[in-house]
Each structure stands twice: as C-alpha cells, then as structure tokens.
Amino acid sequence: MINDAIARMSPLQRRALAVGLAVVALVLVLAVVLVPVWLLHHRYDEAITSLEDRLARYRRISAQAPEYRKALEQVRAKDSRRFFLKNTAANLAGAELLEMVRSAIESNGGRITTSQNQAPREEGRYKAVGVTFQFFATTPNLQRILYALETQQPYLVIDTLTLRPLNAFRGFRPVAGQEPELNVQMDVSALGFPAPDKPGDKGAGKAAEKAAAAGGEAVAVGVGANEPVARR
C-alpha cells in the first residue's frame, strides 16, 4: 500500500518525502546523541552550583571564626563551672552538697535531726544531685538559712519546703522573748557535670566537655532578708 502511494507521487513529491525522512532521521540521531550529553552537563552544572554555594557559606563562616573564638574566650573567662558541683562522681557530689547544706543550717542556728542523700537524676546534659534535711529552727533563723542557701555557689535549688509548728494546739502562746521553733523538712538539689566516661566507651566522652564549654544556668530559690526570692 505504501509502495503504491509512493508510486503515484510525482518526482517532486518523492524528492520532498526523501528530504523529510532524512531530516527526521537526522533529528532522531541528534536526539539520541545530544540529549544524554545535555542532561549530563546539566547535572554537572547543578552540582557545581551547589558546591559553589556551599563553599561560599563555608567561607562566610570561616570569616566569623575570630568572633566566635573571642566569644568562647569570654564564656570561659566567666568560669561557669563555679555554678556547678565540683565533683562529678555521684557519691562525692552528694557528699559535697550534704556538707554545704549542713553548714548553712548549723551556722545559722538550725538543729539537724536527720539528713539523707537522694538518688541522682538526669537533667539534660547535667546530673542533678539532691539531699533531704529535717531540722528545727526559729522563723528568723530559717530566714537566714534560706538566704545562705540562696546565695551559695554553686547554685542550690530548694525543691520542697515543709514547715510544721511544734506547738499547734489551740490557745498556745509562745513565751515572751522566745521565738517558737518550726519543724522543717527541706529537699535541696544542685547540678553537677556528668562523670567522665570509662575507657572504651564510644562517643560519650565529649559530654562533659560540651557541658563545660556551654556553661548553663541553675536557679536558687529561697527567702532572703531584703534579697530577691528567686535568682536565675
């Protein structure tokens, strides 16, 4: 059928058909050869552009290195470690905190009845160490104890504070000139750096370094004489 149709064409039409078929064949050959080459070059162009953008960002960041070093030195100069317990081992940090709270209570007129360490707990990158104290103190002495705890370094946090009067019956009147005592139960905690990792532990050795470099914040809450109740 196709041969009959071609046979009926004039010589000019057959010549035009041959030229058209040659052009189509040439276009197909060029498409087969050039399109993959173009796609490959386009991919390389995109990769080069992406790498150039990334390199430009790295150069901008590198140019800010002196400012970052200066800021880091300023942070180190502030010695943020003084706001945390010195010991990293849980038992030593607990003993350190226990002695600090004991000293604050006894040096301000409190009479300790019991003291107990709490189990350490994780607070993000840091370890929270807590102690529980039960003691007797008058209201003015309790105010001084709380102020002493509030102004401590490292920062201490009073988690709970329970006050019970010793003479709670109706009609009780304190002796003139004598302050009645309170039965006080208090939970105090402080933040410490995590203990250094044992040899062989993977990837955990940088925790203390990150905590030391970044510093942190601790909150001490108490009732001080003419002083802020909370400090951040």
Commentary on this structure:
This protein folds into two domains: 2-62; 82-231, Ribosomal protein S6/Translation elongation factor EF1B (Alpha-Beta Plaits), CATH 3.30.70. The protein is an alpha+beta fold and 232 residues long. Helix content is 47%, strand content 21%. Strands 1, 2, 3, 4 and 5 form a five-stranded antiparallel beta sheet that branches. Helix 4 (90-106) packs across helix 5. The chain contains six helices and seven strands; from the N terminus they run ααααβββαββαββ. A hairpin with an 8-residue loop joins strand 6 and strand 7 (230-231).
Note the total helix count.
Answer: 6
Average predicted confidence as pLDDT: 77
The span between the termini is: 95 Å
Structural class: alpha+beta
User: In which range does the helix fraction lie?
Assistant: 40-55%
Name the CATH superfamily classification of the largest domain.
Ribosomal protein S6/Translation elongation factor EF1B
Shape: rod-shaped
Proportion of strand residues: 15-25%
CATH architecture of the largest domain: 2-Layer Sandwich
The unreliable regions are 202-232
Tally of separate domains: 2
Largest beta-sheet details: 5 strands, antiparallel
Oligomer state of the chains in this structure: single chain
